[in-house]
Specification:
By secondary structure, this protein is mostly beta strands. Strands 2, 4, 5, 6, 9, 10 and 11 form a 7-stranded mixed sheet that branches. A hairpin with a 6-residue loop joins strand 4 and strand 5. The radius of gyration is 13 Å and the shape is globular.
Length: 114
């Protein structure tokens, strides 16, 4: 029913900004009472929560990343976005967007390298 698709550049240079978009179909990000979240899985590590935005537009961020993270949305396109600033190679991971705990995108690989 609900489908999410991550998109954005797969390669980002160190010190630049990682920008991803999650396109949602089958549900409205403004009317469905669920959080819309970003996660990532670095190579060989577990899933890490990055942050979320609610249907009302309120944002919450992981304390470990909040100084570099911004989550926003474009309601006209039914999309929400992730920006992670000042990236390093340690930010290399598969990035996922999700609705609540039940709906996930397929993930997209982002590599930070010069």
């Amino acid at each position: 029913q609900v489908q999410l698709q991550e998109s954005g550049p797969g390669l980002v240079k160190p010190s630049q900004t990682l920008s991803l978009i999650c396109t949602v179909s089958g549900a409205s990000i403004t009317t469905i009472w669920s959080p819309w979240s970003w996660f990532r899985r670095p190579p060989g590590k577990g899933l890490e929560w990055i942050g979320r935005i609610t249907y009302a537009g309120t944002t919450y961020y992981s304390p470990a990343l909040k100084s570099r993270t911004s989550i926003s949305r474009d309601t006209s396109k039914n999309q929400f976005s992730l920006q992670l600033r000042f990236v390093t190679p340690e930010d290399t991971a598969v990035y996922y967007c999700a609705r609540g705990v039940g709906d996930w995108g397929q993930g997209t690989q982002v590599t930070v390298s010069s």
